[in-house]
Amino acid sequence: MSEQVDSQIDWQYDAFIAYSHCQEDFVKDFKAELENHELKIYYDENFLPGDSLILEITKAIFHKCKRVILIVSHDFLQSGWTTYEAELTIHKGNDMNRLVAIPLLYDIEQEQVPDSLKLLKCIKKDDDSYIENIVVALKERLQSPLRICPLNDQENICHFAYFFSDKSTLDHHLQNICPNRLVKCQNQGCSQDVKYIQKNEHENHDCDYAIADCAECKAQYHPSNADDHTAQLCPKKVQCPNAQCQHNCARDKLVRHRINCKFELVHCSNDGCKFIYRRCKEKNHREVCHFARPRLFAFPFRKRHDDEESIISSRPHRECSYCQYILTSVTDMSDHIRECPEQLIEVPCGCLEYKIFRKKWKAHKRICEKEIEHCPNTPCVFEGTNLEKHFEVCGYQKIKCEKCNQTMLRNKHKIHQEETCPEEMIMCHCCKRSYLRGENKHWCEEGEKTVQCRFDRCTYKLKQCAMKSHEACCKYRSIKCDKCNKEFVFLQRKSHEKNAQAIS
């Protein structure tokens, strides 16, 4: 239909009147006056009984009538039927690319007209010549085909939408004039297309690449250079963030200051040491650090004097098989092995298939993606990812005895059951009867008998129930030598060791 001109369409009526029934009396008189000017007018009174109102209104506006007169009033704006008729009229105009609506303002002002009709010339009922103006508009042919701006929207209406008579003018409007045309953001790094009417607001406020003002020095910088400006270029002086340090310097010199700041927190450089201290305390820590290497002998907590040389060399010592660290006691060695930095261990997180040195585990934890958990039971040093599974075997986890309900550490549970649990059933080694350890007294006929120690040269006579504990510490008991595998009396162990050393 948009390609058809007015002369090629045979309209049955000149106009259709859309109105609210509150103005029914006015519409009848208005229709009569228009018909006196030899115009054919159509409205809802021409509908036959039983016809579909929606269908008849659509036929009247699109197929029977050349134009539509809208009697715009307060009742018109509130009625659903008249709103539907106005929407059909606008749709017909867009479909034909012609102006077909003639608004007649009944009891409202121009400012109260809906947005969809504001771009049309409205006729006021209060004008004395409103009938003549409508007659002239109806007798004229529909205006030439229009080029409507396609960039209209509800937020930004293009007020030039109905003023293009050819395609070249519309193209020029879309490329250079229309406020809704898309343009490129001019900020460096931004490739977003925005509407021309919103360009300034986007470039200055909404754009992520908008030039920003430094809140401290008032200098302008690009968002991509924000970190460089804050860390190096901004000249404002700042205070050192380290506690107790009162030094003030320019921001670009703060990094250099913190490298030498005596109040900076640093990690001990000895492999395996986790201690953190301030740089001014570094000398004090190194004197007592367990992991300071190398030390020739096992006096890691104090310096060795010259007069101790002979004493130290005469003492037995042990050397760590991993780091060659020398200690003098088995207890110190067991504690050292537990934290030796040169020992190969499996990583607790389980993300490596091979073993690494313990001193490398600290560096691996910093980059490991898995969450490493520490056992809260002191002094357990477990680190890993499955803490619940560790609690099932942790020796420092508190558990209850199944028999007496006493709370104790898991590594003490076995000793408790064997020696102190009052609800444990034990067997008398004399009469072979079982009884509870918590009973006040167990009377045994066999245990009350007096017997002599079974080792030669021992003259002790005790009750049989106490003889077993005596035999375990009897000085005449026989023991086996670790070197020569010969048995000898415990009382003669010193002379036996001297003879063994002389032979070797």
Strand-helix topology:
Layout: E1 13-18, H1 24-36, E2 41-42, H2 53-64, E3 65-72, H3 74-78, H4 80-96, E4 101-105, E5 123-124, H5 130-139, H6 167-177, E6 182-184, E7 193-195, H7 199-206, E8 212-213, E9 220-221, H8 226-233, E10 237-239, E11 248-250, H9 254-260, E12 265-267, E13 276-278, H10 282-288, H11 309-314, E14 318-319, E15 326-327, H12 330-338, E16 344-345, E17 356-357, H13 358-367, E18 373-374, E19 383-384, H14 387-391, E20 398-400, E21 407-409, H15 413-420, E22 425-427, E23 434-436, H16 445-448, E24 450-452, E25 461-463, H17 464-473, E26 478-480, E27 487-489, H18 493-503
Parallel strand pairs: 1-2, 1-3, 3-4, 4-5
Antiparallel strand pairs: 6-7, 8-9, 10-11, 12-13, 14-15, 16-17, 18-19, 20-21, 22-23, 24-25, 26-27
